[in-house]
Write a structure and sequence with these properties.
single chain; three-stranded antiparallel beta sheet; 19% strand
Length: 379
Amino acid sequence: MEYKVLKTDGKAKRAEMKTVHGTIQTPVFMNVGTVAAIKGAVSTDDLREIGCQVELSNTYHLHVRTGDKLIKEMGGIREFMNWDRPVLTDSGGFQVFSLAKLRKIKEEGVSFNSHIDGHKIFMGPEESMQIQSNLGSTIAMAFDECIENPSPRDYVQKSVDRTTRWLVRCKNEMARLNSLPDTVNKEQLLFGINQGGTYDDIRINHAKAIAGLNLDGYAIGGLAVGETHEEMYRIIDSVVPNLPADKPVYLMGVGTPANILEAVDRGVDFFDCVYPSRNGRHGHVYTRFGKLNLFNAQYEKDARPIEEGCGCPACRSYSRAYIRHLLKAKEMLGMRLCVLHNLYFYNHLMEQIREAIDEGRYSEFKKETLESLQGGQTS
């Protein structure tokens, strides 16, 4: 891997990251395809058309359904889903802690029951790395404990300490797996995850500890889970300066267009969020003037596209009135068109962000875009 900062504008970074599966231009939004598919009937051909650079899939979900061993037999996740660009797989940690009703955390890892059929599963650092190695993703995420916000300080500190020990095990196991002759991707990269709830000092100390492990990249986890936006931005401000300046920074599970604009201004490179696809499946679509709810009666006879000037497949060919009709009639095409538009909107927003940083006008771009987003219609 080679990560190179091409331009800075304040704390905002314009960089490129060369991987074995292609070069990623950052800041970048990764399109979330949990089970190796974007919800909303979006194909990998669609992803290429709407400018997706990185697809994100879920270790836990692919392990419990279909199975990572089968996917390895099929040549890995990229071959399996016909995707010729980078893939990031998350570690499964968040799903273990959010979906498992009964779980037992030990130093070795976590025992829990599958949310699908209840069978017992054990996952620790080595198991998560093995699954992700079988998937053959470009970037693997370290296995960590996702802490609820708020949580008692004493518990958060103990959890973070364990997450650090787990990270060392992840790094060692990744090195071992990458050396094996039958590994799908021998150049698989590893990102560590910063945790610490909303305690600035725990976050900072953890950032310093994991920075010393010389990983391929670093993520900020455990945000967008109930804390205020102000708390989120404060944590990012605290953490980023204590991570290596020559490595990419990934803000996990965030967020709205406004969240992305603010986080880029604080030095973040990578983003992912289910908002564009989830909202699209419910008829909520993003525009530069705010979010629209196409179920609203005011769009019944609206012949305009979702957004004037948008180059997405939906806006090039269909009206708000027609898409509203599809949604009301529960036709899958309506959902698909809304998801395609939203993902195009996010990917195009990232292109505009990169261009603004390149041209040294990010502060002005951020201010104008936030004003436009807040001044328009909402759902």
